[in-house]
Design brief:
2 copies of one chain form a homodimer. The first copy, chain A, is an alpha/beta fold and 224 residues long. Chain A is built from 9 helices and 8 strands. The first copy, chain A, has helices at residues 16-34, 42-49, 53-61, 75-85, 101-107, 110-114, 146-153, 164-176, 203-215; strands at 39-40, 73-74, 92-97, 117-124, 140-142, 155-160, 181-184, 197-200. Chain A has a 6-stranded parallel beta sheet, sandwiched between helices. In chain A, strands 1-2 form a two-stranded antiparallel ribbon. The structure holds a DNA duplex (22 and 22 nucleotides).
Chain lengths: 224, 224
DNA sequence: CTCTGTGAACCACTTCACAGCA
DNA sequence: TGCTGTGAAGTGGTTCACAGAG
């Protein structure tokens, strides 16, 4: 029974719901920082981003004693800390597979760049697109060039924006290049080996969820 | 198979996680149906879509006794039933607010139509776009015409694809037109009144989650 | 026999409540 | 005093295990 149990970073796994909230806290803090707020108690931050105060404290306490008793959390300090925890204190290279409409739209979205993510290239199998670039100047490569680009640009994340029937093959190739984080926009389930993180953004699934809500007599429910 | 299915205990609310899984089950069933499978036990369906068999039985049992003991579930029958539960047995009119790159890309995505969702119009405030149409022939209206179109086409779902700083205002207008289901692609939290279902598809949030995974020593975890 | 439907156990996350520090 | 950090209680969803229908 040891007494000195330091709240060292990551001694136990962090629930994904917690990490999603960290991003939300960070956005609130950005606003507060811009508004010149220096410190804020969990209760006020909670009201600001619509969650329970105790939950914020528990979430943050996982990463050390970030707060100050009697005061709350120093905005600038916590902001810096969260950015570091989320890996936003450095830039991350991202590739998009599929230079169709969705892939091109995502490549041109400035929100990613502002957040530390650089879309360094798109990939496609359409010969008429290969060698070109999007309207924003992001080059479009042949899918076969993926390993070389991933290696050269130290790509950490791949975004999948290809038709459903090509998605699994693309994922396999991406994983084969050593990419361990994938954001998938295509519908349907994809398999990835252990150690690779796959996050799905399935718009069709979301529409069906809304359709169910409408079909089953709109009962007031929580939003997501 | 008898049509004498009992009206399920819909007296208690259905968890959203359950409804998301219903969509997944349905997709599996579509494949099985195409493959000519007539009936399938929960254990096999479970393996097929990567969840626990008991969970499938619990999910489905909420809507009545859909299975047959000793046999499993009849594919065609269950498929029809799930489509009805999810409200996919009829077509649903959808509008997209924001005729930028993302909005246009979504308007042209055939997957929605195949699933029963018709994108009937886009809306924008850019005068140079208003009165035109997307490459797929979907008309682009002025945002001020929203109430008229929603009314005329019986629009049930709105997709938000506008910049973050315009999102809340757009949502308020959409809700004001009587639309009670919203799919939001813009980052940040939005407020909707009770009785309106809001579903967020925040790509930046997803990228940050992946970034956290990469930053905190990729521990093998479940995918989403 | 096989497989569903379901109570009970289990587990994960959230909220409550309060000791303790500034 | 006001607030954080945290054990304890509460909540909700998943898995287990089995009675019972076909």
């Amino acid at each position: 029974m040891s007494d000195a149990w330091k709240r060292a970073p990551l001694d136990e796994p962090i629930p994904e719901l917690t990490t999603a909230r960290l991003s939300i806290y960070l956005r609130c803090l950005d606003q507060l920082h811009a508004a010149g707020v220096e410190a804020i108690p969990s209760s006020a931050l909670a009201r600001h981003c619509g969650v329970n105060g105790a939950l914020i404290r528990k979430d943050l306490a996982r990463f050390g004693e970030l707060g100050v008793r009697g005061v709350g959390y120093y905005v600038a300090h916590l902001r810096r800390h969260l950015r570091q925890i989320l890996g936003l204190d450095r830039r991350t290279a991202v590739v998009i597979i599929g230079a169709g409409r969705l892939g091109s739209a995502l490549a041109g979205y400035g929100g990613f760049r502002d957040d530390g993510f650089d879309v360094v290239a798109l990939f496609d199998t359409d010969a008429s697109k290969i060698g070109g670039a999007t309207r924003d100047g992001v080059p479009i490569h042949a899918l076969d060039d993926l390993p070389a680009v991933v290696d050269r640009a130290a790509v950490a994340i791949a975004i999948i924006a290809v038709p459903a029937d090509a998605a699994q093959d693309v994922v396999d190739r991406v994983v084969g290049c050593g990419v361990r984080a994938i954001l998938n926009f295509s519908p349907g389930a994809l398999r990835v080996p252990a150690g690779v993180k796959l996050k799905n953004m399935d718009a069709t699934l979301a529409l069906e969820t809304l359709s169910f809500f409408l079909a089953s007599g709109p009962t007031p429910g929580k939003d997501t």
